[in-house]
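Two quick folds needed for the group meeting slides. Do the first one here.
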Amino acid sequence: MNAARRRAALVASGTVLLAALAPPLPAAELDPAAGKILAPEAFKWRDPTDQAATNQTILLGDPNKEGSLYININKFKAGRLGNAHYHPNDRFITVIAGAAWRGTGPVVDPNHATRVPKGTFMIDHAEKVHWDGTKEETGAYLITGIGPATNIDPQGQRPLCGRRPVGRDHQATQPDRVEGE
């Protein structure tokens, strides 16, 4: 090895050694004016005990306010299918955990639901009747839209204040109070 290559190898080895032995630099503080980070442990869930069949955290905006951009996460326990409904505005949804089961039209029929696995993107088009929920596994959706995020009953043309979940035997149980899902 010639002298120039030996020197380069020695410098490179020394640099790697110094980098390995150097104390770690403290993490830089983020400028809150430049961006915001909200860790999962800081999410404010409607039911902090996470015992409800449906739970929700609002990450941004107000889903009840006309014209407000909102982003929320809705979590569903297993065996929970909701009533047929529609929304006044488009909603953009990504399944972030488990799987969703979805159908269209005014009749909730679990035997004709389509499985929508984690990672899938969906759009609920404005004023189009659909229903969704979970079967054997839990699920969570990241939902973005423009308020209001009202669920409207296609039969009575009135806002629903939650849905009547359907259990594993597909019999209606008590409604969950989840607006904007």
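Then this one, please, same format:
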Amino acid sequence: MKNISEAIQDFFTKNNYKQEMDIVRVWLNWDKIVGPELALLAKPLGKQKQSLIIGVENSLIMQEIRFYSQQLLDSIYDFLQWQPFDKIKFELLYGKTSLDQIQINKDIKIQEPRHAHVADSNIGHLDFTACSIPSFSSCYESYVQMIKELDTNK
């Protein structure tokens, strides 16, 4: 039997997730990989099968940047130590957001859900004995009991 870390490693290996995460590293480090001057002109838009899709502002830049295709691929190889792309396709940006501009907010604070307290609500004070649905009444009683237990455990 495998432990959980081995199972997770096998899952990621079988589904090529490590390679996909490496490609995400390319987007996040684009300016370091291609250099600040080229990063201003060529923006990563994604991948399509084995092709890297790069966006540029206008057709003049597109024509010029084609001469740097092999240099871009070599820089990606140097960064990852393997080559995820076999060619580069160029597109005009037309206002598209490039992948190197997407920011991930790591400081998201998740609030713990606040549960109801018996003291500050009407929980437990409702009477469902006359209710025509007996399961509803027993469900409500179980809910009230759960809330009371949460209150005593705090």
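Slide caption for protein two: Strands lie at 43-48, 51-56, 87-92.
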